[in-house]
Each structure stands twice: as C-alpha cells, then as structure tokens.
Design brief:
Blueprint lengths: L1 H39 L3
Length: 43
Amino acid sequence: MERYENAFKSKVRAFFKKQLIAYNFDLQRSTWLNLAGMVINPT
C-alpha cells in the first residue's frame, strides 16, 4: 500500500509540474504578445 501511495504521489506531482510549466509558458507568450502589440501599435 505504501509503495502504491508513493507512486501515485509522484504521478500527481509530475502532472502538476507539467501543468505549471505549460501555464508559465502560456503566460510568457501572452506577455510577449502584449509587449509586441504595444510596440507595433502604440496607443
């Protein structure tokens, strides 16, 4: 049981780490798009 629990925890951790990386990547991409938009089309 203990070993199964540890395997499950590491799976969950890996999943969340992937989600976090994807989220950070999206955030950076949208930030860069916003900056590029400001440079190209200053308001």
